[in-house]
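Structure ticket #2291
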Amino acid sequence: MALVALGLPSLGEAPVLPQGIIPVPEEPPIVVSIKADKTTYAPGDALTLTFTLSRDAYVYLYNLTPDGKVKLLVPNRFLQDPWFPAGAHTLPTRGWVLRVTEPEGIEYLQLVASAKALSFYEANAFEADAFLMYANPVSFVSQVTALLPGMWGTAWTSYRVHRPRATLSVITSPSGASVWVGGAYLGRTPLSAAIAPGKVRVRVEKEGYEARSLDLSVADGEELTLSLTLAAARPSLWAPGPRPLWAVAGELPPLGVGLAFGIDSLAAELWLDVVGLGCAFRPGPSSPELTLPGPGGFVPVGPEVEGYLAMWLPLGRVGIVLVGGLSFQEMAWMPAWSPSTAVRPLVEVEPETELEVELAVGAGLGVRGSGWRAYLVWHCRRSIVLGFTLGAW
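Resolution: structure written out below.
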């Protein structure tokens, strides 16, 4: 943590600010407070901040990154207008997420509230980056301080970034036993491995020996050693008998397998006579459109997967084909610009995502031959679909 001058202040002492943090005035014209929803976060956790303003103000939030830079978290590409009315507010707002990342240590965030907008950045800079970076924290603070009007206030907060872990060592007699923790394979004894703390089940197995299972409660930072002696497996009293033979009454309906091709999709189908079960796949876009849908819109960022049921309604050699199911696709909240670079500080900004579920239906005509069926369907999401099936028709 190169930017941290000292740790958190001791009780009753004046706070010692890390390098690059603007000192809080004794009697600020705008009273500001800020706090995180937790005191400790594991890498990957979502971060939620609550702040209060005594009057309407423009808000600027930044943090100090481990590589000696300042990252401006607010405003950003997803929240370009940082004006907030007086009262309590929560960050992030709709459309984006703050997520804590490695390395571990103490993280500092500072919020500056100003009665007027501060012109220390160009709004069009968000075309290149979702959030802005400044290489020199001291220079950044000097630049912002020089622009502050008479009406301003600031507050800062800190929290710990720590991944909970415990150490488990297992020794067995004889050695070479396989060890599982919570269903995850760790290796063969003797071994020492990091595990997540909490209530865990340890299972030890070795061919020719009785398996051992233990339920443990392990605290964060604890180093636990298990030494186990395995007992030889007892011989079975019952010899394995012949497996039963099951007779199938009647005949199974004719089966068939097929493929269905759309303009930009591919589906596999399994047919049981006139009823088919299919799964279709459409690749997601390489990147969102830069001009659509504009700030505050959800755009597809992942592939679309559709599960559906198909019906063949026979009319002699011709048949009517009906298709119905659900499509699933990941959507991300994107403004007009798309990120072009990526950095990994302690806190990073990412779009809010959600899973879009849509009804998918289609209808068309097909023809049947000896051992095959083909159909052409108009589909509400996959456009024109051509399907071909081979089976015992």
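Closing remark: The first helix runs from residue 137 to 147.
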